Amino acid sequence: AEAAAANQRAETAETKRREGEEQLETLQKQLDTYQSGQKESQKNANIWQLKCHDLQQQVEDLQKQLSAARLQNPTVAPTPDVVREAKLEARKILSDAKLYAESAEKELKQQADTQKSRMAENARGIAAGVMLVRDRLARVDQRLNAATLDLDGLTQAIYQALDDTEAELKELGTEMRDFAQGTPEWNVPEPNPLQSQPAPAKSAAPQFRVKATAQPVRAHRNAQPPAPKPASRRLRNTRRPVSQLLQDEIDKIDDQTSKA
């Protein structure tokens, strides 16, 4: 149960770590998107600057053409109407260029301000996300360390239990050997064919024999004094039937009668 709980905590920590990595990847993608937008805005700003430069170049070309025309015809003075029209045309071109440049500058400034605010907001969001991911990763590391410690403790407990079991088994084996060595076989006297005993008693006698397989048991068994078989025989011989005793007495009387 402890191992299953530790594995579950480790899996939960691993899942949270993966979620943190996914959030970090999402924030990185958003940052890449904002950077792409900034590059696009910078590109548009460069295009506006090139257009302004082209307008300024056109104005300069017109001024150069006017100066060249004056140099080519110094004797012929331009009429006031032509000069007035040229000035009006140049003023119109310059006014359009100025309006165009002001509009471009204003738009660029707005885009820059918007981009800055977005970048600042995104930077704050990214920083907060990074801090959150770091916090979660730290918690995941702590949980992984705790799960590792739990697994180590459980492993040590299992090893200790195995060692205790092995010691108990060894102790049990020693007790079994001691029990085998200290339990001799029972010496059961052989049955006398002259003595009438029931048949089930002969088959039931071996059930009480305890055989030891160790060598010292046999030596201990041999050291036991054997059963007094002759005494048993004498006991059986003295216990003669009454009819036989009476016949002996009759024989004695007959002997005494014959001698007399």
TrEMBL record:
Location of region: Disordered: 1-40, 181-260
Bias-annotated ranges (Low complexity): 1-10, 193-207
Compositionally skewed regions (Basic and acidic residues) per UniProt: 11-21, 249-260
Compositionally biased spans, kind Polar residues: 25-40
Protein name: Uncharacterized protein
Organism: Subdoligranulum variabile
